[in-house]
Specification:
alpha+beta, 28% helix, 5 strands, 4 helices, five-stranded antiparallel sheet, 18% strand
Length: 187
């Protein structure tokens, strides 16, 4: 066999192996029935009087979760009895005309069956001012009517955007927050 034929066969075998791996990694779960319960990471707003501002990440849905995360922010001002969650969700675009979601919600929900992890937390004195700054930045998000899995803008672009607008958050997103570098295009 010629070297070119050997290379072609190796490439073909590699592609078949990659397809097999990806097809086995794909989640066949029904996202409608996936857990959206609290992971128990956030302080109870009914017993926690201090201000709380948190940033979360969870593996993305389906096979994308093997290498990418979905990120979001959650805030509870001093003496508030609930959290407000700030996030971007791509499938909202067709239904609502905006990917941006700001709503009263559980801050530490499972991301469609995937357990979140706490990336960043601020609590106590001075956090109410951070929450105001985060809220303002979130509402000024420039790509609320756009969504792209890669390179963005996506949920990680949103979280990175807020972090860039509010440097006091001292936000350091993980490498798996694909799309977080998209914010540099706004400069």
């Amino acid at each position: 066999m010629s070297p070119a034929v050997k290379r072609s066969l190796k490439l073909l075998l590699l592609m078949i192996l990659l397809i097999m791996i990806l097809s086995n990694c794909a989640t066949h779960d029904d996202w409608h029935n996936a857990s959206r319960e609290s992971a128990g990471l956030a302080p109870d707003p009914l017993t926690t009087k201090e201000a709380v501002l948190q940033v979360y990440a969870a593996p993305a849905w389906s096979w994308r979760g093997w290498f990418a995360v979905h990120t979001w922010l959650a805030s509870k001002p001093s003496n508030a009895d609930h959290y407000r969650v700030y996030e971007v969700i791509g499938w909202r675009l067709k239904r609502t005309g905006s990917v941006l979601r700001i709503a009263k919600d559980l801050p530490d929900r499972y991301w469609y069956g995937k357990q979140p992890r706490l990336l960043n937390e601020h609590r106590g004195e001075g956090v109410d001012q951070l929450i105001v700054a985060v809220d303002r930045a979130a509402r000024e998000y420039p790509w609320a009517e756009e969504y792209g899995i890669f390179p963005g803008p996506n949920s990680n672009t949103f979280t990175a955007w807020v972090g860039k607008q509010v440097p006091e958050l001292q936000l350091d997103l993980p490498f798996s927050a694909l799309g977080s570098g998209y914010v540099d295009r706004a400069d």
